[in-house]
């Protein structure tokens, strides 16, 4: 079946120039980070530390209904012109993330309000694939796309949106010495073998360039079904499931979530903070907000493995 939606052919350069202009104009905030790579069950995990992130405004909890006059405004209802990138089909548009940890971090959002907790539709995935393939044609790597759904997923906004990170920019700050002789970092969701070694259970299927939206949506439905059955009675209410989804140029991954994060322990076993994780965990990345958390995890990568083991189902199921 032919692809119904397409992204602008110059999307990578369009994102780059829009980001540079918005940054210079003060229309977005970019938080530079320290970065290192830690081994977790033989999987190289990228750890980033952004001191400025601690002062980022905390979004409201994910809501179950569209915003009302008594609820915070919807940031995707009327995107700032300086952050707007382009439309993708009749029902989606692209906008820069106003609070960027990775340069050129952007978002695919629905034009009309749709629930972040509802199942994704074929058009959501088709638009995501169109963006991934536009980047892959330009640099061979493409994008890491992720979706957070449910109270334990790291989701923050009720308006449906999928986040997109240029993989080339996710490598910013990494140098050859960062991995200390361990396997070099790469996007976890690319590699089915490494996914099997992760401390949390995932369900994945390979995808390929040119697949129809219907075929990829079918994979999404199958994987969500498998994840729901695995979660079973651990879900807070029947039929509900918190999860992260990741899409790359070659794989679709679903990770059921039972917790947003867990405590980080210092050298003496005391709690020094709490690590909260969203869908970037499926890239093999984690972000900390304090120096104590950064130092504790670098000194004891096993603590990171422990936190990761608590966010979902253990290992492969």
From TrEMBL:
* InterPro entries the record matches: Ap4A_phos1/2, Ap4A_phos1/2-like, Ap4A_phos1/2_N, ATP_adenylylTrfase_C, HIT-like_sf
Instruction: Output the GO biological process annotations, alphabetical, semicolon-separated.
Output: nucleotide metabolic process
Q: Which PANTHER family match?
A: 5',5'''-P-1,P-4-TETRAPHOSPHATE PHOSPHORYLASE 2, AP-4-A PHOSPHORYLASE II
Lineage of origin: Eukaryota, Fungi, Dikarya, Ascomycota, Pezizomycotina
Name of protein:
Diadenosine 5',5'''-P1,P4-tetraphosphate phosphorylase 2
For bias type Pro residues, the affected ranges are 69-81
Q: Which residues form a coiled coil?
A: none
What domain of life is recorded for the organism?
A: Eukaryota
Q: Which GO terms describe its molecular function?
A: ATP binding; ATP:ADP adenylyltransferase activity
The gene coding this protein: APA2
> Per the database record, which ranges form the ATP adenylyltransferase C-terminal domain?
197-314
A Pfam short name: ATP_transf
Q: From what organism does this protein derive?
A: Metarhizium brunneum
